[in-house]
Amino acid sequence: MRGDLERLGRYDHHRARQRVRDSFGGEHSRVIEAGGRPVGSLTVRPGAGGGLVLEHFYLDPAHQGRGIGTRVLEGVLARADAEGAAVRLTVLRGSAARGLYERYGFTVEAQDEVDIHMVRAVRP
C-alpha cells in the first residue's frame, strides 16, 4: 500500500504501522503463501452490522499479476456465499485492485479523497 499512499500524498510510516497493529488480529488473519513462501496477508472479520469485512489484503508486488490475489478473493467470496453474507472493503483511490473488486461484483457505497468503500451484496 505504500506506493498508493505516497501517490496520494498520505504516506506516514508511523501511522501505517499503527493502523496495522491496531486492527491486525491473529484470529481473523492469514498469511498468503505461494510455493511454500509467505507472499502476503489477509484479514476477513465479521462486520459490526453483519456480513464480512475484507481488510489487510496485501500481496507482495513481485507476486501480483499471477492470479494469486484472484484465487484468494474467490475463496473469501465462496465463504461469504456459503454464509449468505455481504462483503465490505475499502480500497485506496487509484488502486489497481479496484478493477478486480468490480469484476467480482463490488460496487461503491461511499468515497472520500483517499478511500473508496465498496460492498458485494449477498448472493442468492
Cα end-to-end separation: 33 Å
Largest sheet: 6 strands, mixed
| Helix amount | 25-40%
Gross geometry: globular
Instruction: Tell me the fraction of residues in β-strands, as a range.
Output: 25-35%
Annotation field: number of helices:
4
Query: Which structural class fits the helix and strand makeup?
Result: alpha+beta
Mean pLDDT comes to 85
What series of H and E elements makes up the topology? HHEEEHEHEE
Low-confidence stretches: none
Strand order of the largest sheet: 1-2-3-4-6-5
- The number of distinct β-strands equals 6
Radius of gyration: 14 Å
Brief account:
With 124 residues, this protein is an alpha+beta fold.
